[in-house]
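Posted in: Protein Modeling Q&A

I'm a second-year student putting together a small comparison for a lab meeting, and my supervisor asked me to include a predicted structure for Myotubularin phosphatase domain-containing protein. I've never done this before, so apologies if this is the wrong subforum. The sequence is pasted below exactly as I got it from our records. If anyone can share the structure token output, I'd also love a short note on what stands out.
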Amino acid sequence: GLLRLIQKEWCSFGHRFRTRLGLGEVPSGEYSPVFIQWLDCVYQLFRQFPTAFEWTPSILLRLATEALSNRYGTFLCDNELERSEKVKPFALSLWSILLKPDEASTWFNWDYAPTGKALIPSICQANYVIWDAYWFRYHVRGQQRSCPDAANASTLPGLSQPRAAVPAASVAP
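Accepted answer (user: helix_wrangler)
Welcome! Here is the predicted structure, written out as tokens:
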């Protein structure tokens, strides 16, 4: 299923997790969280077809979190050779944790009903939403973050001069 797809298409084919996720000691200009973006796309598919997948979005959230956590060897390196030589002898694979029966039961989709057909998602922008569980996962429920309101937006903290309004005519289409 999903974990095998990630292992084969992302890990074994050499996605550069360390470089793209910025997991190295020295930040590089090659940071590009493509894997996280892909998980977000998969989440959008799940929203449109909630019974078409054997798993729930909780597994996507776990994968995204662990990809950035450095807790498991699965996403630590830039290729399979690096992983097998430098990480496998010393670190657990995330798959060994996620595939334990008690863990797997937490992300199994009990409403799963295979269709046998290709999924054709809507491309209408209204069908896509922010993946709140990931992008706002550190937001404390019940507490409102302090955000500058429109009246004070021109004097944001850290700016020595008030921001000038951009004339509408100068904004590119």
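A couple of things worth pointing out for your meeting: Confidence is low (pLDDT under 50) at residues 147-173. The chain has eight helices and no strands.
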